[in-house]
Amino acid sequence: MSYVNNQPQATTQMQVLPGGNRNASNKSYGPNGERGWSHGICSCFGDCGTCCLSFWCPCIAYSQNKHRLEHLEQHGAPHPEGGESCTGDCAIHTLLNCFGCGWVLQIGTRSDVRRRYRIRGSTCGDCCTAFWCQPCELVQDSREIELEEKSFQYKQ
């Protein structure tokens, strides 16, 4: 019988990112570590309230999405008021929408959502989605953020 004369080696601990569950719908990750959206771009009617807000007042939906995402990133917790509505971001989005360009601001926020939740896609895809499907894009972003926010209900 032989014995091992060395001490066990330390192992690295699991990294836990602050925030909630970033894949609450348990979508499978591909070989590059990215996954698909939890809700399709055409499933915007699944959240009728956000869909109406995004269609009639996209500036408010944009501002709420942006501030909810920023709050999750900075504080690791959901925004206590569900995001700020009437902000400078909302005003800039409104002004740009007067010239048909409000969608341009959404590209950055959509890219941030994809990055946070490791969703596959590209800046070109973000641009096309924001341009051609502005309200649906806002709803899809909102629903992805909402999944993480809801996961905090189960944390104690």
Automatic annotation (TrEMBL):
InterPro entries: PLAC_motif_containing. NCBIfam families: A_thal_Cys_rich (TIGR01571). Residues 1-30 are annotated as: Disordered. Signal peptide: none annotated. This is PLAC8-domain-containing protein. Pfam families: PLAC8. It comes from Heterobasidion irregulare (strain TC 32-1). Residues 1-15 have a biased composition (Polar residues).
